[in-house]
UniProtKB/TrEMBL annotation:
InterPro entries: AGP_Transferase, Aminoglycoside_PTrfase, Kinase-like_dom_sf. Pfam families: APH. Residues 451-488 are annotated as: Disordered. This is Aminoglycoside phosphotransferase domain-containing protein. The lineage of its organism: Eukaryota, Fungi, Dikarya, Ascomycota, Pezizomycotina. It comes from Parathielavia hyrcaniae.
């Protein structure tokens, strides 16, 4: 199993692209209040027996791919948006992952993820999972969208980092940097997400002009393979600040956006609708503790939001600058999503390509991987402050100092290869970048999303975020880890 897919036109879409349905009214079932920190977390509402899931997966695959009829199908892991099952057979030369996704952004998240992975495969040397087939519709026995992909070798970096010598760490990130350099060298004329060209009518704005899908300019690196004659289009954005919790229902543009100002204005508009659509009563749809606390202080919240909104026109100009170059950026190059050979410490795969968008270059912080970053992504959760738990500033400062020493050589190696993404010599450009990154950070903090701060992997191996990613080449029946990591 595996070799028969060589040379086939992959990935294979098994769903019908002409079907168009609005988001279901009951998506609140897939969200619940985090018990400790109060934000809305993603949630699987059913407790379906894994044997029943395996049977449904066998039916789904059996019609189109009879070679999977005798596969051993076992529960593998549960991710942030996904539930995963492994497909193995001792006669096969490959193993596979079958991933089922809850409907946080129906159709668009799956379609964009598959197209993005294929685009990266065609235009870079980065090792990523090969997708065999997918369904961007929930019209099947499972009732969910799904992806069938190859299982990738290697262990997650979080498991190996503590045991890696400094020289191996530096070599690993130099290797990653060579791949990222290829990725960020691809430039785009708009901000949004990639899709296959055959779904252009679904992912572009209604009555979109020809300019919405054509290449702007003559630079060979701009909008490569996009538009008429190309395999891809640049369409609607799929990002958490556009679909997280109730945002999927809010009216407004999802792009593609021609300027950073258009993109930021829409983020602000969605945040405006969100803070005026709280669910503070326990038991009602979309309830979370953060909403309850915000509702108690809503007058002050609205006042602060209006101050932030008034700053945007002053800090984000209407026209793009060099820092606004469109780049395809995997914003979670983290210790979970970088897979490494446990013997050679070489990079074996980069996984988790869902919601990977084309964004302004300044938002990537010079294409800095999350694992090398010292950004303070998460303030103390609102509900913990309400409970009298002090801010975690002291921890974040201490952790940043620790990471400066621990990550320093790897950072130098990485940035020495990737280099700056745009010309920063102009004082005006430097000031615009500071202003725009300041706005982005405030919107990120106010976005109602859980943002994990950096942790010491050796001291925090059991952190709950580990459960959000597929682990092991094989697992016990109850899902305990036994081996290396595959794909989220």
């Amino acid at each position: 199993m595996g070799s028969q897919y060589t040379g086939l036109d992959l990935p294979i879409r098994v769903s019908h692209t002409h079907e168009s349905k609005p988001p279901a009214a009951d998506l609140y079932r897939y969200w619940r209040s985090h018990k400790e920190e109060g934000y809305l977390e993603r949630h699987w509402p059913d407790e379906l027996d894994h044997d029943a899931w395996a049977g449904s997966i066998r039916k789904v695959l059996g019609r189109r791919f009879p070679e999977f009829a005798d596969a051993e199908i076992r529960y593998f892991a549960k991710g942030t948006f996904n539930r995963l099952y492994s497909l193995t057979n001792p006669r096969w030369d490959k193993s596979y992952i079958f991933r089922v996704s809850i409907p946080v952004e129906p159709f668009f998240k799956t379609e964009s993820e598959i197209a993005t992975m294929e685009y990266v495969r065609r235009h870079t040397s980065m090792s990523i999972p090969r997708v065999i087939a997918f369904s961007s519709s929930d019209d099947n026995e499972l009732g969910y969208e799904w992806i069938l992909m190859e299982m990738m070798p290697g262990e997650p970096l979080r498991k190996l980092w503590a045991a890696m010598p400094d020289t191996a760490r530096v070599k690993l990130f130099a290797e990653l940097a060579a791949h990222v350099q290829q990725l960020v060298a691809l430039r785009f004329s708009k901000f949004g997400n990639l899709y296959f060209a055959d779904v252009a009518d679904r992912v572009l704005p209604p009555q979109a002009p020809l300019s919405a899908i054509t290449c702007n300019g003559t630079d060979a690196s701009m909008d490569r393979d996009i538009g008429p004659g190309g395999s891809f289009v640049l369409g609607r954005i799929v990002a958490q600040d556009f679909f997280f919790d109730k945002r999927i229902y809010y009216p407004g543009s999802r792009g593609p956006f021609s300027t950073t100002r258009e993109l930021v204005d829409m983020r602000v508009e969605l945040l405006s609708q969100r803070i005026r659509n709280l669910a503070p009563v326990e038991g009602e749809a979309w309830y979370c503790e953060n909403d309850r606390e915000l509702d108690r202080n809503k007058d002050r919240v609205y006042e602060l939001f209006e101050q932030l909104k008034a700053l945007v026109p002053r800090l984000v100009p209407p026209d793009n600058g060099p820092e606004d170059a469109g780049v395809l950026w995997h914003d979670d190059l983290s210790e979970h999503n970088l897979l490494v050979d446990p013997v050679t410490f070489k990079l074996t795969a980069v996984v988790d390509w869902e919601s990977v968008s084309i964004v302004p270059a300044y938002e990537t912080y010079d294409a800095r991987p999350a694992w090398l970053s010292d950004r303070d992504w998460r303030p103390t959760p609102l509900v913990q402050l309400a409970r009298g738990i002090p801010p975690n500033d002291e921890f974040l400062v201490a952790d940043k100092l620790r990471r400066v020493g621990e990550m320093g050589p790897a950072r130098l190696a990485y940035h020495g290869i990737v280099g700056p993404l745009y010309d920063t010599s102009s004082p005006e450009t430097q000031q615009r970048v500071k202003d725009k990154q300041g706005v982005a950070k405030h919107l990120e903090i106010a976005s109602f999303q859980h943002r994990p701060c950096n942790r010491n992997p050796a001291a925090d191996q059991n952190h709950a975020a580990d459960k959000y990613h597929a682990t092991a080449n094989s697992q016990t029946d109850n899902g305990e880890e036994k081996g290396s990591t595959a794909n989220t």
